Amino acid sequence: MSASRRSGATDELGPDEPGASGEPGGSDLLAALLDGMDAALCAFDAAGVVTHWNREAERILGWSAKDAVGRHGFAGWAVRTADAEEVQARLLSAMRAPGRQVHEFALLTKDGGRVLVRTQSAAVRGAGGEPAGVYCAFSEVHAQIDLERSIALSEALFEDAEWGVVLVDADLRPAVVNAHASRAFGIGRASALGRPLGELLAQGVEELEAALTHVLAEGAPPAPAEVWVTLRSPAEGEQRRCWRNAFLPLASPLAEEPVPLGVGWLFTDVTEAKRGEQEAALLRFRTKQLHRAARAAAECEDPLEAATVHLDYALAGFADHALIDRLADAPRTPDAAGAVRLVRLAATPAGAPGPSVLTGAAGLPVRYEPGHPALSCVERTGCVRAEAGSVPPELAREWALRRQWPGDAVHALCAVLRSRGRTLGVVTFLRGAARTPFERSDASYAEDVALRIAAALDLAGATRER
Predict the structure, then answer these.
(1) How wide is the angle at C-alpha 89 spanned by C-alphas 83 and 91, nearest 5°?
(2) Residue 143 to residues 39, 115, 120: CA-CA distances in angstroms?
(3) Is this prediction's pTM over 0.90?
(4) Is the CB of residue 343 less than 8 Å from the CB of residue 365?
(5) Tens of pLDDT along 131-171?
């Protein structure tokens, strides 16, 4: 334990005897405080004699309080003789200097080793303000450097990091937010503090809160997790982004048992890379489907059956329903005029899934109203997209039935069937409410399928003429 110089310095700190109330004496309290410090501490009187030495100093150097207290400086035991005068002068200079003095020098351990320490020393003033001695706190340089690095890392993460960094408390509310994270949330750093994640994100909150709860209870996951979130942006509306997230449990290092302080949440935006991966995977799948359809259609004796084969292969992962309508009259050339009439040639079953069925043997035109997407597709000789929009299910069903489509269709894509410079008809792909609307990449795929269907229909017409 800490000890005091035997010459009576203890009396200046307070009596050793317990007070009348049984409370500990001042020197006992001081000794307990010094021994409980995490830093090594020693003190010198005005003559340079060691008056205090705590347990952390003993741990670092091996010299006990009994060994140290009462010695004059560090000469002959804690420093080399050649360095003793310089070290003594640097330590005692703190009595004449304002504030704290920081020095680095090597001390000797009890077993003869050397330890490089960083010291902070300051003057101890007497009752009249005159210098009465020096106290010196010291720690191993590498430990101090580790602490400084940790502080510098924390500051860098919260200022200049390219990742978003958020400290989430045990109630799953942001306690600290760095600049990158605040930009991702589209809100100021101070405004995000203490708010539930549901106020910062429109979608993806459940997944993130589940991950944070798991980290608090079980610890960090073995690998980063990717979560799709939807951000609320006052300027640009809702934006769907993919974040790659890493989670670190935070516990207090000062408690006897780990006390959860929250979670360190790091994330980076990988939306573009993720979309690129998805588009590449989708392109590979669709290319394989076209290849399989071509091989299966080559085995069909009837060209119309080959057309339905292409339609069935195209549906996988692309649409819920599909229709093939051919022109009721002769194939249409670019300079043709007059009303467009279409006859339903093939359609997928509207109820249970199954292969496309050839229809339209009677040759009756489909009752398409003017401005129908299929008619517009023939007139423009290009793809046409249509959708019911954000309407109640009853109105969406009415929208689909009025266009002669299955009642659950809410998104439509019509692609023209052309072969040898002539328009032969239209293929229509339909999606339900559970799917996303058709995009430009979907239109390109629909055109590829339409080319193959049109070639089969053209071959069927040529065969019929012969």
Answers:
(1) 100
(2) 11, 12, 14
(3) no
(4) yes
(5) 888 888 888 887 777 777 777 777 777 777 788 889 888 88
